[in-house]
Amino acid sequence: MAWLSDRLNYLFKSTKGLVLTAVGLVGLVTAVFGMLSGPASEWGLKDFIVRTLGMRLVEAEREGRIIMLYHSIAIPVVAILVYLITDAVPMKERQRSTINATITVGYLLTMFDGLGFAYFGHSWLLHGLFIAGMSLTFYSGGLLAAALWPWNKEHHVSDPAYAHLRSGVDLERLAFFTMAVATLGSAAFGAAAGAYYGNGFQTFLAENLIREPHHSVAQFAVIGHLHIMLALIAVATTLVIGRWFDFKGIWHKLAMPLMILGTVVLTLGVWGVVTPLEPAAHMVIYVGATPAMLAALFLILYAWPKLVRERLAEQGLTRAGFGRKALALLHDPLKFGALWQMVYMNFTVSGVGIFMAVTLDKIIRVWPSKEERITLTGHWHILSAIVATIILFYFADMVGMKGRVRQWFGWTIILASDLAFGAVTVFSLKRLFIAEYDQQPLVNVTMWLTDLGLITVLTVLAAFLVWRLVDLARARGHWREDVAEKGILGMDATVVPAKTPTSTPGAGAGTGGRS
Amino acid sequence: MSRSSLGRNAPRPVRRPVAIILAVLASASLLVGAACAAVPASFAAPPAYATGVDPEAWALVPAGEYLAGQFNERARTDRDFEIMVTPVTNAQYARYLNEALAAGKVRVDGGRVLGHYPGDPFAGKKHEKPIKAGAWPFYVFSDPAARITFDGKAFTVKSGYEDHPVTMVTWFGARAFAESHGWRLPTEAEWEKAARGVDGRPFPWGDAIGPGNANYYHSRDPFETPGRMGDTTPVGLYGGKSYGSFKTVDSKSPYGLYDMAGNVDEWTADVYAGTHQRYLRGGNKGDYPPDLRSWARSSAPPDFAGPSAGFRCARDPVR
Considering only CA atoms, which of A430, A427, A431, A408 is closest in space to residue A419? Predict the structure, then answer.
C-alpha cells in the first residue's frame, strides 16, 4: 500500500508529478483522438478506434464533439501552466497546494467527463461533471490570482536587477497577476456564450463562420474567446520561461511593463468585439499584441547572449568567434529550443496572422472560404502545438534530463516539430504559389512532412513518458528525490521561495530568484 | 582532456545533431521545392464509364416542410420546383458556350469567356466588394484544369470528360447558363431540401458515408491517380453499379438526385445583403467527408472559377 501511496503522492502532490500526469494524459488523448481525422482516418484507423472503444459518433454533433475535445486538451494544458507558475512564483505552500489540488480535480473532471459525454453517448451526468470540472478550474484561477496578488509586501522586490515599482511591487509578479485576471475574464467571456450554444448542441466551429457577413454577439464572443485564451496561454508560457532563465536586467525592466500593457490592451481589445466598438476592436488587438510580442523579443535578447556566455564560461573561454558562439548558443537544445520556438512562432503563427489581416480582402477572400479556413486552423493549431513544445522543453529540464538524452530529445523535438509546423504553414498558404489543379504533389509532400514531424514528436514524448514511468516503478528512482525535496508529507504555511530549474544544463532544480 | 574526465553528466558536443538538423531541413526544403515544380499525374483520357444516368433529367421537389441545417430546424419551401438530377456536364456547358458565342452574348478575352451581369446592390459593408453591371468572367479555359478548350472558333470538351460535371465556371457563368434556358440556380434552401429530403439525414442517402457513396478526398475512386490527385467523376457514377473492382452504392437523394454530396461544389442562387460572396453546397472531390454533409456550405466570390466548383439548375415545374 505504501508503494502505491508514495507514487500517488508524487504524481498528485509534487509539481513534477502533477505536470507528468497531465502531460501523459494530454499525450494519450492527442494520440487516440487524433486518429479520428486527417491521414489516420484515411488509413482506416478511425473505424478501428471507433469500433474498439465503442464511440457513438453522430454527424450533426461533430462540431460539439470537437469543441469538447479542444477543452479536454486545453484545460490540462492550463493546469500544467498553473503548476509551473505555483512552483516558480513565491507563494504560501498552503496556497500552492490548494490551487494545485483544485485545478487537478478540475481538469480531470473536464477531461474524462467531457470526452465521455462527447464521444460515448450523452449522459447528462457526465456533462454536468464536465461543467463542474471547468468551474473548479476557473475557481482555482481565482485562487491563483489571489496568491499572485502583487501588492503583498511579502513579495516586494528590492533587487535593482528586476523590474519593480518604487513601492517595491514586483512587475513580473504583476504581469503574472494581470495574465491570471485576464484569463479569468476571458474564460467567463467564453463560458457565457458556451452556455448558450451548449444548450442543445447549437454549436459551431469559429473557422466555419468567420467569413459570414453578420455575426451575433455570442458568435463574436466564441471567436474572441478562443483567440484570447491562446494568446494568454502564450503570455503565461513566456513569463514562466522568463523565470526559468532568471530574466533580469535592462531587458527585464523594459519587457515587464510592455507585457503588462500588452496583456491588458490585447484582452480589452478582444472583449471589445462584443461591444459596439467592434469595428475598432481589431486595431486595439494589434496595438495590444505588439508590446506583448516585444516583451517576448526582449526575453530572447536577454537569454540568448546569456546562454552563450554561460557555455563559453563552462568551456573556460573568455573570447570566441562567431562560430564558437553559435555552437555555444546551440549547445543546450532544451533552453535554446524554448527560445527558438518563440522566434519560429513569428514565421508560422504571428507572421501568417499579420499577413492574413493585411491581405484579407485582396488575397485571402478572393479564395474559396475553405482555403481561408485551412489557413486559420493551421494558424491556431500551430500556436497551440508550439506552446506545448516550449512547455515540454521546460519540463524536461525540470526533471533533470541530461547528457546525450537531453541532446537527442531536444533536437528531435525542435527539428520534428518545426518540420511539421513549417509544412503546415506551406500547406495552409499553398494557394499563394500553386493553383488548385497543380497542388497535389505539394499537398502530398507537406502532409507527409507534417505526419513525419508530428509522429516523431509524439514518439519522443511517448519515450519520455515511458522513461518517467520506469523511473516511477523503481524504488530509488528520481521521483523519490523529488518527493523528499518537496517535503510533500509535511507541508507548512511558510512562504516558499521562487524556484527555477537549473541555469546550467544537466543539473537538478535549484533555487533562484530575487530578494 | 579525456571524455571520462569530464564526468558522467558533462555536456556533449552538439555537432552531430546540428549536422542532422541541417541535412533534414535541406532535404525537406528540396522536397517541398520539388513538389511545387512537379507536374501532377493525370489521365490523358479518363476511364469511360456509362453510368446510365441521364444528365438531361429533372426531378420534382414538392413544396412543404423539411428539416434544415445542422440542427434540423423546421423550414419549408413554398412552391414545387424541379431540379436537375445531375450537375451540368462539360458537354452541356460547351454547347451553351458555342450557342452564346454565336449569338454574341459572350466574348472571349484572353483565356476567359466574358458575359454581361447586371450588377448587385452595394451596401458598403466591411469586406464587401462592389459587383457592378458589366462584363464578368463566365468560364476560364486557359487553366490546365479546364475540360473545355477553345480553338479560336468553337468550344470543345476534352475527350472522356463529356459527362463529367463542368468546372472552372464562375457563379456568373452558372447563372447565365441557367437563364439562357429559362431556368435559374437553386436557392440554398431549395438545394438543401433536394439533397436531404424532409427527414433530417446528414447525407443524401442516409447517415454514414463511405467510398462507395461519393467522390471525396482519397475516396479511392477510379479517377484518382496513383499520386492521389482527385478528379471529377462522371455524373451519376454513384448509382449502385460496379466499375471494374470499384463498387458504388446507390447514393441518390430522396428525390432521385445524384452527386448532391462530393464531386463538385455547386453554386447556389442567393445574393445576400452586405456581402459579395456566393455560396456553394455539397462538398467536392478534394474535401473530407464532413464538408459533404448536406448543411455544410462554403463561399467564394462570384468571379471565382476552380476545378472543384460546378452547378446544377432549378426551374418551375413543367406542367
Answer: A427
**Per-residue pLDDT tens digits for A357-415:** 889 999 999 999 999 999 999 988 999 999 999 999 999 999 999 999 999 999 999 99
Residues 282-301 of A with CB under 8 A from B: none
Residue pLDDT, tens place only, B85-127: 999 999 999 999 999 999 999 999 999 999 999 999 999 998 9
A447 vs A432: CA distance, rounded Å = 17
Under a CB-based contact definition with an 8 Å cutoff, are residues B258 and B205 in contact?
A: no
Interface of B with A in 246-265 (CB under 8 A): 265
- Which residue of A45, A310, A365 to mutate against B (max B Cβ within 10 Å)? A365
Q: Does A323 touch chain B (CB under 8 A)?
A: no
d(CA A189, CA A7): 38
Residue A493: exposure state from Cβ atoms within 10 A (0-12, 13-18, ≥19): exposed
- Domains of chain B plus CATH, in order, are 58-315 (3.90.1580.10)
Question: In this complex, do A403 and B127 lie within 8 Å of one another by their Cβ atoms?
Answer: no
Minimal-distance CA residue of chain B relative to A438: B40
What ipTM, to 2 d.p.? 0.88
A interface mutation test: which of B122, B293, B299, B308 has the most A CBs within 10 A?
B299
Asked whether the beta carbons of B319 and B152 are under 8 A apart, the reply is no
Please state the rounded mean pLDDT for residues A339-357: 91
Is A449's Cβ below 8 Å from some Cβ in B?
Answer: yes
**At B60, which helix (H) or strand (E)?**
strand B58-61
CA atoms within 13 A on the CB side of A444: 18
CA closest to B123 among chain A residues: A213
Chain A nearest C-alpha distance from B68 (Å): 12
Tell me the C-alpha distance between B159 and B156, whole Å.
9
Profile chain B (319 residues) by mean pLDDT over runs of 10 residues.
37 55 67 61 73 97 96 95 98 98 97 97 93 98 95 96 97 98 98 97 96 93 77 96 95 98 98 96 95 97 97 92
Question: Quick count: other Cβ atoms within 10 Å of Cβ A374?
Answer: 18
CB contact under 8 A, A368 and B300: yes
**pLDDT for the residue numbered A20:** 96
Q: Quick check: B11 and A404 CB within 8 A?
A: no
Pick from A42, A434, A437: CB nearest B145:
A437
Task: Give pLDDT, residue A213.
Answer: 87
- Chain A contact present for B130, CB below 8 A: no
| Extents of the domains making up chain A | 7-147
Per residue in A297-339, pLDDT (tens digit) is 999 999 999 999 999 999 999 889 999 999 999 999 999 999 9
Q: Is B25 on the interface with A (CB under 8 A)?
A: yes
